[in-house]
Write a structure and sequence with these properties.
5 helices; 207 residues; 29% helix; Maf protein
């Protein structure tokens, strides 16, 4: 098994224009005293997500940001989404697109629920889902490291909670009583898909 490349800098570019992701990843990186510059702050364009998997899209975004920013900093990208068993894994890599051009996830959650009702998925055991996240760290020379995390759960309706972002208010993690939308950030970070991918990234590249 090859050894991951070690990150030795004091700053990186976060290849995301999603404010919720920027906040969450900055919180995860806070203990490492790394300056995080978002793609939006650096006026970097969002590349078209043409990959067919979370990993392909995460690597595409990380490499685009690592080679486009003028600072020479490595770039970290996240591609994540909700995969619903009863919907054959949808929305999956299209999770953000279901929110439309205005990124209205209340509409996206309502669409998930509409489709679940349409296939008769009304009992908890019929509403199994998982959040998937892939974090990719890329350097300007084209080297890239990727890590995947998942968390299992079920979908509730009506959605609950105003915390988190995206589909969080309708996702109840396995064994929990609170949705991701009801959890305090520290509680979510302890079990989330992104946190699980992040721990792998830290162990491989930052220690």
């Amino acid at each position: 098994m090859s050894v991951a490349r070690h990150f030795s800098g004091s700053g990186l570019v976060l290849a995301s224009h999603n404010p919720g992701k920027v906040v969450e990843i900055r919180e995860l990186l806070a203990p490492f005293a790394i300056a995080v510059h978002s793609a939006g702050e650096l006026d970097l364009a969002e590349p078209e997500e043409t990959g067919s998997t979370f990993r392909a899209n995460a690597e595409l975004k990380a490499l685009a940001a690592a080679t486009a920013n003028r600072s020479g900093l490595p770039a970290l990208a996240d591609d994540s989404g909700l995969a619903v068993d009863a919907l054959a894994g949808a929305p999956g890599i299209y999770s953000a697109r279901w929110a439309g051009p205005n990124k209205d996830f209340s509409l996206a959650m309502a669409e998930v629920e509409r489709r679940l009702q349409a296939v008769g998925a009304v009992r908890p055991e019929q509403r199994r889902a998982r959040f998937v996240a892939v974090l990719s760290l890329a350097w300007p020379d084209g080297h890239c490291e990727s890590f995947q995390g998942e968390v299992e759960g079920q979908l509730v309706w009506p959605a609950r909670g105003q915390k988190g972002f995206g589909y969080d208010p309708m996702f109840l993690p396995e064994g929990g009583r609170l949705t991701f939308g009801e959890m305090e950030p520290n509680a979510k970070h302890a079990i989330s898909h992104r946190a699980r991918a992040f721990r792998q990234l830290i162990d491989a590249c930052f220690r």
